[in-house]
Amino acid sequence: MCQALGVGELLQLSAIASARLDDGHVFVTWQTAREAAPRIGAIVQRLEAALEKALGVKKATIILTSHRPEGAVQGGRAPRQGGGHRPFALADGSAKNQDDEEGAAVIERLGAVIAVASGKGGVGKSTTAINIAVGLAQKGLRVGMLDADIYGPSLPRMLGHRGRPEIRDGKIIPIDAWGVKAISIGFMVDEEQAVIWRGPMVMGAINQFINDVAWPDLDVTVIDMPPGTGDAQLSIAQKLPLAGAVIISTPQDIALLDARRGVTMFQQLRVPILGLVENMSYFCCPHCHHRTELFSHGGARAAAAESHLPFLGEVPLLAEIRQSGDAGEPIIMAAPDGEAALRYKEVAEAVLQQINAHAGRDGA
């Protein structure tokens, strides 16, 4: 039983990979084997409390990680052998070829990689992904964000950055916004320029965003996935050892049907489902404060329960969320004490708990 896990056995099963102290808050990256991680993940809260008491700090946060052995299955399929060159034009007009194997060190630096996905567009996936990323950064984690929605990149506008990233020593330097290191094709093309690419070019761009970006050492990397189920999702699941997927839906039945397709896709790819989020869950009039459930309510919670999946939270439909996104300041920063920010913080906390709960399970 997890409760019987002693100190000696704990030290045999795991090791502290890194630790840092920031204003009375200690952050510990705890490395363990996949088969041992579920036992340790079950007592993470006890370990955090023990660290707080032993070190005399205000707060302790543990992130569980595990290294995938060479040749391990990724996304339910064997990893590609021999690489394959995928040229992609950089912002400075140059081109670079990179073998898949050369990205191994990069993948290690990405930390726990989570995909934020939806079965269809228009459900607030990117807005939710950004606020989850910023919410995790506010907890002191080192967070990266990769915009895999090549055809509809929204990160530049929503993060408030329009400039092109710097190229240094052949590497793309990610944009630093709101405590998150971010990369998007939107940083490299004009905002109104259509990206009219065939599938292989899209896959090449995603591959480069993994291998040819100067990612720092991160605790968590959030991937804003394109809507639907297709090549991009399959490629990412094969390329990266995903810690899990977060599915975004609105409450109405048609959106939930698409969300269920997204759940099924990741399950077929053997990617853990961290949970569902219900966006646009309800509307409160800013004048009379009357609550109206424009798109019904509770559908995502019910769908999660039916599928025996975690429900990560619900986010209201508020004009402030749209306004902050258009203004380039995530609502979690623009109005940190508002209802929307509080809901996003709850979702970010639930995502972190699920990352730890799933750490090391053979689902990537």
TrEMBL record:
Official protein name in the record: Iron-sulfur cluster carrier protein
Protein species of origin: Candidatus Kirkpatrickella diaphorinae
Annotated signal sequence range: none
Keyword Metal-binding belongs to the record: yes
Family that this chain belongs to: Belongs to the Mrp/NBP35 ATP-binding proteins family.
Residues annotated to bind ATP: G119, K120, G121, G122, V123, G124, K125, S126
Cited PANTHER family: IRON-SULFUR PROTEIN NUBPL (PTHR42961)
Self-association and partners: Homodimer.
A Pfam cross-reference name: ParA
Entry function: Binds and transfers iron-sulfur (Fe-S) clusters to target apoproteins. Can hydrolyze ATP.
Region described as Disordered: spans on this chain: 70-95
Alphabetical UniProt keywords: ATP-binding, Hydrolase, Iron, Iron-sulfur, Metal-binding, Nucleotide-binding
Molecular function terms from GO: ATP binding
InterPro entries: Mrp/NBP35_ATP-bd (IPR019591), NUBPL-like (IPR044304), P-loop_NTPase (IPR027417), YlxH/NBP35 (IPR033756)
